[in-house]
Write a structure and sequence with these properties.
Elements (H helix, E strand, L loop, with lengths): L4 H14 L11 H14 L6 E8 L9 E3 L2 H10 L17 E2 L13 E3 L4 H9 L2 E8 L7 H5 L15 H10 L9 H9 L10 E3 L15 E2 L19 H12 L5 H24 L13 H14 L1 H4 L3 E8 L8 H26 L5 E7 L18 E6 L32 E2 H12 L6 H4 L18
Parallel strand pairs: 1-8, 1-9, 5-11, 6-7, 6-8
Antiparallel strand pairs: 2-4, 3-4, 5-10, 9-10
């Protein structure tokens, strides 16, 4: 699937820039591309397909009430720091059904045993069957960093990410390795590398929850779709003020060619938007019923449309795709226990329904779903909530995931250890670069291109964390 970055850039930069407000395509040839796509897709092999699905938990997930100490000693420490059951600690008796048994060859820091939130029994079953892996204490880093180095005033020798603990900046840093203002994200850069694999490059990067830097590459740009399907800009047969004739006339005007360069570009983009959206709508109509599980709305609906697109991959002419979905509400400075557990219940149900749909399609080994969030949160309570942190715990789900075990280093349950930088804010021991590069290698990116996707990976010893099987 690989071509050199220089080759990709020089061939596609002009195309992307002239269509940045809409969708990429080769101007006068886009209609021909759509007309021939069905025939080309029929000749392609469905066996060479891979997709990454990022589930972004907007607001900063409280990792300490997501993966909770289960053994007596560490649970006692956790409960004391979080104010007991009258505070924000989850009762120990509620954890017995979501305890995650360690494999015999694994021992965590301080002999910790961990349980999922009681709101996540379905992910507990996925862990037991070997398709879910927790990844511990992940966060943005520019290089490995100890507590002593973090405390040092010499930030040139011991750099750390800019604008820590800020929502917008840390969301952007997770998505693009730079604070707010970044223009390209690592999902889009994966799309750049994948463009040459897809007969229709339009559907390489797909966003279901609005615009985000994560899916913007140098050449790849996100095709935006709603949980209900593509936005049809001006479908054939639309009416205007109740008039079919007026509707047809406006549709013609939107696509009318002009001698003025900007007007002509605008008309071309309108035409592409109308044609591609209608094309996707037609392709999704044949998606199997097992992919249509989004009746409850929210994250369920977002993942349902992703499943429908994956089911339609041959019709769409794609072999590599990157998706972004999201769920908000995780910035729980107050009323943490009730709000957060409700969010985790939604996450648990949506991830499980999505994975069940992939199983029914037989593509569970071809699709990997992973979580991201602004940051983790403080281990200490501010009364009945928690404040902004840094490192946090995440999950990877899929048939090619080496599940049923933990990856990364478990932090001590403490507000005074060197694993934290104050108030129990975790100092990450696994970088987002390592997380991204492990997923990129599974996706098919050459080792020589990892630094394009994860720019700081050269400073870390582990470009592959081992949570993915590449068989």
């Amino acid at each position: 699937m690989h071509r050199s970055r220089a080759d990709l850039l020089c061939r596609r930069t002009f195309i992307r820039r002239t269509a940045a407000l809409s969708i990429a395509g080769a101007g006068s040839s886009y209609a021909l591309g759509l007309a021939g796509l069905g025939e080309l897709a029929a000749q392609s092999s469905e066996n060479d397909y891979k997709a990454l699905v990022c589930v972004f938990l907007r607001g900063g997930n409280d990792h300490a009430n997501t993966l909770i100490p289960y053994d007596s000693l560490n649970y006692s420490r956790y409960s004391q720091i979080r104010g007991g059951q009258q505070g924000i600690a989850i009762p120990h008796q509620d954890l017995s059904n979501t305890f995650l048994r360690l494999p015999e060859d694994q021992i965590l820091t301080d002999d910790q045993l961990l349980a999922l939130s009681p709101a996540m029994p379905k992910m507990k079953r996925r862990y037991d069957e070997g398709s879910l892996a927790p990844l511990l204490n992940v966060g943005p880093l520019l290089a490995p960093l100890t507590r002593a180095e973090f405390d040092s005033p010499n930030t040139r020798a011991y750099p750390r990410p800019a604008k820590l603990f800020s929502h917008n900046d840390q969301q952007s840093t997770w998505e693009a390795f730079q604070p707010e203002g970044a223009t390209t994200g690592w999902g889009g850069k994966l799309g750049d590398i994948a463009l040459s694999s897809n007969q229709n490059t339009m559907f390489t990067a797909i966003g279901v929850s609005g615009n985000s830097v994560f899916l913007n590459g140098q050449d790849a740009s996100a095709f935006q779709i709603t949980p209900s399907g593509p936005l049809i800009m001006w479908p054939v047969g639309s009416t205007l003020y109740g008039s079919r004739f007026s509707g047809d006339a406006l549709g013609t005007l939107l696509r009318q060619q002009s001698s003025h360069v900007l007007e002509n570009d605008y008309a071309m983009m309108n035409a592409r938007s109308i044609e591609y959206s209608a094309f996707v709508k037609d392709a999704l109509e044949n998606a199997p019923a097992s992919t249509k599980f989004g009746g409850s709305g929210g994250l369920h609906a977002q993942l349902s449309i992703v499943a429908q697109i994956i089911a339609s991959r041959s019709a769409l002419g794609v072999k590599r795709q990157v998706f972004l979905v999201s769920i908000g509400g995780f910035d729980n400075h107050s009323d943490l226990k009730s709000k957060h557990q409700g969010l985790l219940q939604k996450l648990d149900g949506a991830l499980d329904a999505f994975y069940a749909s992939l199983l029914s399609l037989g593509v569970q080994r071809d699709v990997t779903t992973f979580t991201a969030s602004d940051f983790g949160r403080t281990l200490t309570s501010n009364g009945n909530g928690t404040d902004h942190g840094w490192g946090g715990h995440h999950f990877v789900l899929g048939g090619n995931v080496n599940g049923g075990r933990f990856f990364g280093r478990a932090p001590s349950i403490s507000i005074s250890s060197d694993d934290q930088v104050g108030y129990g804010r975790l100092l990450p021991t696994t970088s987002v670069d390592e997380y991204a590069s492990t997923l990129a290698l599974w996706f098919g990116v050459n080792a020589s291109d990892l630094q394009y996707v994860a720019p700081n990976i050269g400073r870390f010893a582990r470009p592959d964390l081992g949570f993915m099987s590449r068989q």
